Amino acid sequence: MTTPPSTTPRLEVDGLEVAFGGLTALSGVDFAVRDGETVALIGPNGAGKTTVFNAVCGIVKPRKGTVRIGGRPAPARATGLLAAGVSRTLQGLGLFDHMTVLENVLVPLTSLRAKDSLGRARDRLAELELLHLADRPAGTLPYPERKRVALARALVSDPKLLLLDEPAGGLGAADIDALAETVRRVAGTGCAVLLVEHHVDFVMDVADRIVVLDFGQVIASGTPEAVQRDPAVEAAYLGLEAVDAVAVSHSSSGRRGSAREGGSV
Ligand SMILES: Nc1ncnc2c1ncn2[C@@H]1O[C@H](COP(=O)(O)OP(=O)(O)OP(=O)(O)O)[C@@H](O)[C@H]1O
In the chain, what percentage of residues exceed pLDDT 90? Predict the structure, then answer.
């Protein structure tokens, strides 16, 4: 049972524009995520998905536009974001490999000076079937377990807005099913979830709405069914195949970003 949406979106991105030197990475990006809603941000490589996350977290400074969290301007610092109820997972996980699983999951609670940190951390580990690994150094675990530790660390602060960067990447089918279950459960508590993901089946399974970026602009948004039928989305992905086929045949890099340097979107 999902929480009814509140009137103020948990996350509002309005007219976002980000440039890296001569490269316009995002232009006029608008979207919102409400409490209890799961929104997937998809698009070909280099479309600007991670840049949106980085702008939401204050890691990159927009040239134009605003990011509001719970109706207020987004805090610029990591501790401010945590206090505002924002958690994020990273593509590279960002775990402290030499620290135990439990110590990793305690980190946000230590920053927040939270009460009953140990109990909360152990609860999250139990929910993600990691409790038996609590005393193992995080760096010694296989990738799917390390990925769950990163998720437990993001969830331990009971975020109101959860940002997941490629949560299904590198996981097998059973782990992806378990992840989908976790995302549904977290959204069911009223948390707004924004995820960046390439795994189409996972996105279709968990997302209430999908926002499609291409060359830094929103080219489609709506329900998974509507977006799947959208000719602009199909064209964007077919275009990627064409660009990649050319790039791969001429160089070792198939990344689309290389095809857009110096261009504007
Ligand atoms: N720090 C940076 N400096 C310069 N250019 C950057 C920087 N970060 C991203 N870019 C460029 O901005 C564009 C958008 O990159 P971004 O990583 O947001 O895309 P993405 O959609 O997340 O791609 P992927 O799916 O490959 O992760 C790309 O052309 C990328 O090369």
Answer: 62
Q: Which atom of ligand 1 is nearest to the CA of 48?
A: 18
Nearest-atom number in ligand 1 for the CA of 91 is 27
Number of CB atoms found within 10 A of residue 81's CB? 21
- Dist. CA 30 → ligand 1 center (Å): 18
- Of all protein residues, the one whose alpha carbon is nearest to atom 6 of ligand 1 is 20
Task: Identify residue 118 by its one-letter amino acid code.
Answer: L
The number of beta carbons lying within 10 Å of the beta carbon of residue 120 is: 19
| Contacts with 127 (C-beta within 8 Å, 6 or more apart), sequence order | 152, 155, 182
Pocket of ligand 1 (CB under 6 A): 20, 23, 25, 43, 45-51, 257, 260
- For residue 264, report the distance from its CA to the centre of ligand 1, in Å: 14
- The per-residue DSSP string of 133-202 comes to GTTSBGGGS-HHHHHHHHHHHHHTT--SEEEEESTTTT--HHHHHHHHHHHHHHHHTT-EEEEE---HHH
pLDDT digits (tens, 9 = 90+) for 218-244: 999 999 999 988 888 888 776 554 444
Using the structure block, give the residue that is written with the tokens 């490589």: 45
Q: Looking at the domain that runs over 1-76+205-265, which CATH code has it been given? A: 3.40.50.300
- What ipTM was assigned to the predicted interfaces of this complex? 0.96
Residue spans of the domains in the chain: they are 1-76+205-265
- Report helix, strand or coil for 130: coil
Q: At what angle do helices 173-188 and 143-155 cross, to 10 degrees?
A: 0
Q: Could you identify the residue written with the tokens 């919102």? A: 32
